Amino acid sequence: MVQIHLITEFILAETHCTVSHLQSDFIKEKKGMSKIEYTDKTINFVTGCSKISTGCQNCYAETMTFRLKEMGQEKYQKGFNEVVEHWDMLPFEFSRTPKRYMINSMSDTFHPEVSFGFIFKMFEQFIHFPQNTFMIFTKRPERASRVIPKIWSYLSKAYPARQFPLENVWLVVTTENQEMYDKRIHYLLDTLVAVRGLSVEPMLSHINFGDHLEQIDWIALGGESGSKGRPMHPSWALSARDQCKSHNTAYWFKQHGEWGFPNGFKKKRITMLIDGRIFKNDDDFCQFCSVTPEELDRLHPSTRQKLGKKKSGNMLEGRTYTELPTLIKN
Ligand code: SF4
After folding, report:
1. CA angle, residues 197, 201, 204, in degrees to nearest 5
2. Would you tell me how many other CB atoms lie within 10 Å of the CB of residue 99?
3. Among 149, 246, 270, 322, which residue has the fewest nearby CB atoms (within 10 Å)?
4. How far apart are the first and last CA of the chain?
């Protein structure tokens, strides 16, 4: 009993959560309900992962796996460092009414330790539930670009009456900064899927998406939440919004994250003299777009504060952005 109490204390100290948050996460995980705004449900056929880039630093799945393991959930007893395929969940009964599912939010479907056979079986389930949408997020698009065409090829032989790629499957590649975007985007563009998306979360730098957006249907973007969240500058989110607008790409702004501007942020109004340098934003030029989160810490002490995800909110220039792809590009 004392040990359970100590573990709970440790989890709360590490994650800055309340007991009711832990219980609510536990219940949501059990019911497959999602806290992620653009999905109705999350289903985890795979658990466990390994970190691949700086966006993984404060991995939510890792923290959650630790919590769920300590709370006794059988599915998470192997911990985060072991990738487990949950064959017992297949075949799976998805909803009979339309829902948006995020698949494997507690892992990465294209992790090298997830077998081709298992990924194939997961995709095969999607065929039987055309009323639902299946969103697959990955930081490993290189493997996705090799595996997915093979899956379409095998499935088209097994289900000759169906069309491939399946129109209800989205591939969403996570790209937290310019470097990862440049590295991962070509694999996404090379993969034949009905909907191509980018998840820029946590956003850790300004990203110039370039003309690749012509082939991207959706961008979901947000700053990092949690006590260890790194700052995102609103200029980066605004620039992404404008780039999406000029390429007819749907834009979902999820949140500012842990850091926010208590008095709001107006792109045009900022002019600051720091260390003898003028930092200024106007329509044509964004000085803040070129800085790193570490520099932001230094440059913005007076205007930016650690407000927490709830208070920093999800407003950009006075409104929210919750667009989903309607016109699918080829
Ligand atoms: S790829 Fe995703 S689940 Fe895996 S460590 Fe990185 S953030 Fe966590």
Report:
1. 125
2. 17
3. 246
4. 57
Tell which atom from ligand 1 comes closest to the C-alpha of 107. 3
Residue 318: inside a domain, yes or no?
A: no
Hey, which bits of the chain come out as E strands? Answer: 41-43, 46-47, 84-85, 100-103, 133-138, 169-174, 195-200, 218-222, 250-255, 259-260, 271-274, 277-280, 305-306
Residue 264 to residues 224, 305, 306, Cα–Cα distance (Å): 18, 11, 13
Range of the domain at 116: 32-312
Give 264-302 pLDDT, tens digit per residue: 555 444 555 545 555 555 443 444 555 555 565 555 544
In this structure, the number of other CB atoms found within 10 A of the CB of residue 14 comes to: 13
Atom of ligand 1 nearest to the CA of 60: 8
SS3 of residue 263 by DSSP: coil
Confidence (pTM):
0.83
Q: How far is the CA of 300 from the centre of ligand 1 (A)?
A: 29
C-alpha closest to that of 238 among 202, 281, 276: 281
The answer to whether 323 touches 250, Cβ cutoff 8 Å, is yes
Residue 53 lies in a domain: yes
144 lies in a domain?
A: yes
What is the number of structural domains in the chain? 1
Helix, strand, or coil here: 265? coil
Report which of residues 309 and 172 the model is more confident about: 172
117-165, pLDDT tens digit by residue? 999 999 999 999 999 999 999 999 999 999 999 999 999 999 999 999 9
Question: Residue 125 is encoded by which pair of tokens?
Answer: 């389930």
Residue 26: both structure tokens together: 């536990």
Q: Assess contact for 298 and 164: CB atoms under 8 A.
A: no
Residue 81 alpha carbon to ligand 1 centre in Å:
11
Atom of ligand 1 nearest to the CA of 138: 1
Enter the tokens of residue 84.
């487990």
Is residue 222 a part of any domain in this protein? yes
